[in-house]
Amino acid sequence: MSKAKKFIRKFRDIKTLPHVVTSLSRLIADENSTMRDFEDVIKMDPILVVRLLRLVNSPFYGLTQRVDSIGRAVAYLGMKNLHNLAVTDALKNIFQEQGQSQTFSRKKLWLHCAAVSICAKMIAERIFGANGDDAYLCGILHDFGLIVESQVAPDKFFAACDIYEKGTSLIALEQEYLDTNHCEIGYLLAIDWEMPETIQEAIRDHHLESGDYKPESLTGIIQIAEYITGQLGYTALVNVTSELPSHLVEHMQENMDEYKVLIEDLPEEMSNAQDLYGN
């Protein structure tokens, strides 16, 4: 068994995602799933029901009539939005638990992942004209392996974080101290949670420095989103900023006008998301 798998097994003994999240993941992957299937899963989680109805009735959607039924809310939001809401809620609770060092805190990591998810969705939709739901979900999940490491082997993980310096490789430090890294752990977890294959691969590859992946791939989108949000101070660790591979730099330079507008709009989009999902 690989070191990453051992970490995941120990993590499951401590904390796991609610059953509703994995159930929704299976429904998303099943092309024969119906809205009623989603409704049956959602109604088993009272807290998620409250969040769902609050979301669909928020000013963000501007509905003229209040939605009071789970079925209507699911029909209005759609399956992927519903799934993303459930994952976001579940992960937020895990990220807020205690665990920190001089350079790492779960709150800071949560803000980083939230910023990357929102930025990635914007990039997918505005730059590439694609549906941004998977980009959002990938952004929320991409650094979850760091949470697993901090929970299972906190002393070694915090020691690696505390000696990190700008220009060094966090992945290399993780390998040295933990014999695995958060990309590998996150990839295996995404498989375990039955996330789409493109999300699994983007989590595994989001620190690749070279490769034949395209800017419009999830891997490219997450790397660009990490770079942009890092420049704005939303980093996973103190003073950690992502460097972009040369082909992504070229892509951004070729589309700089569009990216400038996106960056200007990002704070407002994050504010909207905070209203929906909470701070």
Briefly characterize the structure:
This protein is mainly α.
Written description of the protein model:
The chain has 279 residues and is mainly α. Helices cover 68% and strands 0% of the residues. It has 16 helices and no strands. Helix 2 packs antiparallel against helix 3, helix 2 runs antiparallel to helix 6 and helix 8 packs across helix 13. The mean pLDDT is 85.
CATH class: Mainly Alpha
Task: Please report the total strand number as a whole number.
Answer: 0
Q: Give the full name of the CATH homologous superfamily.
A: Hypothetical protein af1432
Proportion of residues in helical segments: 55-70%
Tally of contiguous helical segments: 16
Structural class assignment:
mainly alpha
Q: How many individual domains?
A: 1
- Major β-sheet, in short? none
What form results from the Cα inertia axes?
A: globular
- Low-confidence segments, given as residue ranges, are none
What is the CATH fold-level name? Hypothetical protein af1432
Mean pLDDT: 85
Q: Rounded to an integer, what's the Rg over CA atoms?
A: 19 Å
- What order do the helices and strands follow? HHHHHHHHHHHHHHHH
Roughly what fraction of the amino acids lie in strands?
under 5%
**CATH architectural category:** Orthogonal Bundle
Gap between N and C termini, in Å? 38 Å
